[in-house]
Amino acid sequence: MKTRIEQLRALFAGAGIDGLLVTGATNRRYMTGFTGSAGMALITRDEALLLTDFRYIEQAAQQAPDYEVVRYDDPYAILNERLQRYKGQRIGFESHHVTVHELENIKKAGGDAPPVEWVPVKGLVEQLRGRKSEEELALIQKAVDITDAAFTYILDHLRPGVTEKEIAWKLEVFMREQGADGLSFAPIVASGPNGAMPHARPTDKPLAAGEFVTLDFGCVYQGYCSDMTRTVFIGQPTAEQRALYDLVLKAQLAGVAAVKPGVVGKDVDAAARSIIEAAGYGEYFGHGLGHGVGLDIHEEIPRLSTRGTVVLEPGMVTSVEPGVYLPGRGGIRIEDLVVVTEDGCRVLTKSTKDLLCLPS
Asked: Both 139 and 44 in a single domain?
């Protein structure tokens, strides 16, 4: 099996480069294993260097055994020094991670006669990150298992009078106690009218009978993220409320069923969106169906949306999360993480998607 360094080098020709300077923090971690907060990786056809400062030399040596660790006081001076051996070659930089100021510093380090030609490159490492290895999938599954356990736990605390903020805090504490390193993102706990906001922040609003409560949360386990959403009801829903929940669930199941190798992201989105549109609620589902998940909670590969052009491949992990949001009334979202397999997909999230009606 090719190493990540070898896989990246295999992409150089297509990108028209002889090497790549990796500065994006997540990409640097993916390529090297180094989790420090400062440094850059330079990968050429002949070398794999990890440049960092005094604080991280020992850590870098332990975490990145496949790299020559180079200490710097001035990163740009060291970079220029090492690039002298590659005079005239084309070295890519991550244009989506390098600021204008940083690019100026990189170029200035070479003086009036830069040793290399700098070439803007976008998404090269992300292309590799899109397909997860079995080791990565095992870490994602562990993170998902923690969120599943958290959902089961929090059901006993969802009752009238408890505030959204209190629920969010309980979720965080529980997930950390179960071994999570941190949160994938700030939990969303949205009850009643607040559920109409897809990314509502928890407030001091108390939960109340007769309302939906949307819970969207995830954790990080050894660097890898999870993400799940469930919507429950306090008390007994009306026929209209139950029908709306059933509609979102039908769309979610259709989206999951559409995930398979060779399918384009926008077609998976359409499989779920068409069901909501046919029921007359299309204008109330205004976000994409799903996004990639891995070292980052939102990854571009794959993207399930009306503009999603990535063709799904085995090993890709994505969320499937349709929703309907009615201003002033509330909202419903249901989300699983799935991994694309050789003949379809496997749902990583195990929590029930039946409508749970909790005591009021």
From this structure: no
- Tell me, yes or no, whether 247 and 207 share the same domain: yes
Following DSSP, what letter does each residue of 139-173 receive, concatenated?
Answer: HHHHHHHHHHHHHHHHGGG--TT-BHHHHHHHHHH
Per the confidence metrics, is the pTM higher than 0.85? yes
Same domain, 104 and 196: no
119 residue type, one letter:
V
For the chain, the domain total comes to 2
- What is the average pLDDT across 120-137? 97
Question: 305 near 321, Cβ under 8 Å?
Answer: no
Least confident interval from 44-53, 99-108, 121-130, 273-282: 99-108
Q: How confident is the model at residue 108 (pLDDT cuts 50, 70, 90)?
A: confident
What integer is the mean pLDDT of 291-299? 98
**DSSP line for 259-317:** --TT-BHHHHHHHHHHHHHHTT-GGG--S-SEEE-SSSSSEEEEEESTT--PBP-TT-E
CA distance 80 to 73: 13
How many secondary structure helices (H) and strands (E) does the chain include? 11, 20
Residue 110: pLDDT band with limits 50, 70, 90: low
- Residues 6+ away with beta carbon under 8 Å from 268: 255, 258, 259, 289, 290, 304, 308, 312, 320
Contact assessment for residue 358 and residue 158, using Cβ atoms and an 8 Å cutoff: yes
CA 296 remoteness from chain centre: 4
Instruction: Say whether both 101 and 165 belong to one domain.
Output: no
First to last CA, the chain: 55
